[in-house]
Amino acid sequence: MRTLHELKEPEKTLSADPSARRGIPDATVARLPEYLRALTGFAERGITSVSSEELAAAAGVRSAKLRKDLSHLGSYGVRGVGYEVDHLAYQISRELGLTQDWPVAIVGMGNLGHALAAYSGFATRGFRVVALLDQDTVLHEQEIAGLPVQPMEALPSLVTDQGLAIGVIATPAASAQSVCDQLVAAGVRSILNFAPCVLVVPEGVDVRKVDLSTELQILAFHEQRKSLAAQGALDAVAEAVSR
Amino acid sequence: MRTLHELKEPEKTLSADPSARRGIPDATVARLPEYLRALTGFAERGITSVSSEELAAAAGVRSAKLRKDLSHLGSYGVRGVGYEVDHLAYQISRELGLTQDWPVAIVGMGNLGHALAAYSGFATRGFRVVALLDQDTVLHEQEIAGLPVQPMEALPSLVTDQGLAIGVIATPAASAQSVCDQLVAAGVRSILNFAPCVLVVPEGVDVRKVDLSTELQILAFHEQRKSLAAQGALDAVAEAVSR
DNA sequence: GTGACTTTGTGCATCGGTTCACAAAGGCGT
DNA sequence: ACGCCTTTGTGAACCGATGCACAAAGTCAC
Lengths: 243, 243
Ligand SMILES: NC(=O)c1ccc[n+]([C@@H]2O[C@H](COP(=O)([O-])OP(=O)(O)OC[C@H]3O[C@@H](n4cnc5c(N)ncnc54)[C@H](O)[C@@H]3O)[C@@H](O)[C@H]2O)c1
Ligand SMILES: NC(=O)c1ccc[n+]([C@@H]2O[C@H](COP(=O)([O-])OP(=O)(O)OC[C@H]3O[C@@H](n4cnc5c(N)ncnc54)[C@H](O)[C@@H]3O)[C@@H](O)[C@H]2O)c1
What we know:
The structure is a homodimer of 243-residue chains. Chain A is α/β, with parallel strands linked by helices. The longest helix of chain A has 31 residues, at 212-242. In chain A, helix 2 (26-44) runs antiparallel to helix 5 (85-96), helix 3 crosses helix 4 (63-71) and helix 8 packs across helix 9 (173-186). Chain A is built from 10 helices and 10 strands. Chain A is globular, with a radius of gyration of 23 Å. Chains A and B meet through helix 1, helix 2, helix 6, helix 7 and strand 9 of A and helix 1, helix 2, helix 6, helix 7 and strand 9 of B. Chain A binds a DNA duplex (30 and 30 nucleotides) through helix 2, helix 4 and strand 2.
């Protein structure tokens, strides 16, 4: 993999795009979707041009950060004016790989899997749910949101025939590693994991997780800190009064 | 708020814990839940002691990082041996504020809200769903997972009577800011947002978001990069052959 | 009791990301 | 046509997080 990548490097200089394109920082990539969403909002309201200040406010970041982020994908702004909404949205879409549709499969049709299957948010931006999978044979009779529920054995053909690229794991944590292994074996290299556990995957496979309970626990940490601070303040006041 | 906090500082020296406790880095806090989960796993398998190496592997980090993280909460390991599983789990729980149960309300009983209400993952670790809320009067007849669906007007009393501390937003993005404002007005200071939008809140209120489509888009970015690299490699090979 | 061995806790170097502040760039009004 | 004014793009300083490497600490075998 490493050598293959290096093979390509010499071509970089004659690639079409002018700016130093390799190596967009991870932190920047993580914010691009938010910028894109904000731009979509502006476009829907008929706004054709925004300044970095306005866009940053809509995305919840500082304008300097926004500008530095955008500078990594090229120079698409006009000094003294700002950015053309449609054009910038297109450039970000292209950078994120959303100009094509990515076929997605959801594995695990329980409570969460049902909600995900019914979710329209996939289709709106670059993703297409091509299959629903579950181990449970009882479910194979059903259709959910217009798609049949298939057995796990369908995976390899989904990759070869439908170009399946992204797998979403919505099974219990105990099954998640096994499901992950099956996805990887079938050739899926991008996985979104909703199960609360760490997945171990070979190099070249990306895993991201969406973890409700981690987020709640982080909130609890700060909430406790706020409570303690308030309590401490009360104590201090009480002490001051009693003195 | 700042001044209240400073009022408390002098007490720190006579607080029970020996180490410099203030200011655990955000990056560390974000990993504590993962460590806790790994420890729970060890405990379930009857393992009473782990080294930083073992625990780090289970949590998917490097051992040096784990040790530095743990050093921020105190010195709970034994050199030459490792960490006592139960004790460390308790210390992390206490640090995260999970030794008490936090009352949680879910707002928006659509597809996702239903799944969340039925989800057992809340109760297992420090959280208790005390209320389900929705604007839609049709839903107020129903019970979901043993809880009645209440109108938004119930919010203030939930905070005062039940100690509601954390709000989960599972409404469409268009309603999320309004729901957020109502939560804040009622006194909720910690919010978990599932809607794909940025929420603006006053200082002192924490918002975290769980964002499916952002994660998918980040995966797409890397997937595209992998595809391009593969394509580039093929081109390079073809070129080499033709020469 | 002692010494060898294991593993922690941490100082230090390094890295990546954020913030600041401003010179360069371009539109726009006159 | 020209100069003013706005806003971008970015160099440089700063800040927090990560990784390295080892001395200190404590266990355990004998
Ligand atoms: N329900 C929620 O709101 C929620 C929220 C956050 C996280 N999660 C996590 O998402 C996951 C799913 O939650 P859920 O509530 O939908 O669970 P669930 O028990 O309702 O559904 C799990 C589904 O996975 C299927 N399954 C189990 N093992 C499988 C395997 N090896 N291969 C294929 N399919 C398999 C089961 O047949 C079942 O249909 C869990 O890990 C949970 O912790 C759920
Ligand atoms: N369904 C999924 O799998 C999924 C996944 C990721 C993110 N999301 C996001 O979660 C949110 C909910 O998704 P969903 O599929 O459950 O939507 P949904 O339309 O099924 O449900 C939304 C619910 O919110 C209620 N609601 C609307 N406005 C309200 C208000 N002002 N106050 C109180 N309640 C209000 C509605 O009555 C409805 O019951 C959306 O923002 C969606 O983008 C959903």
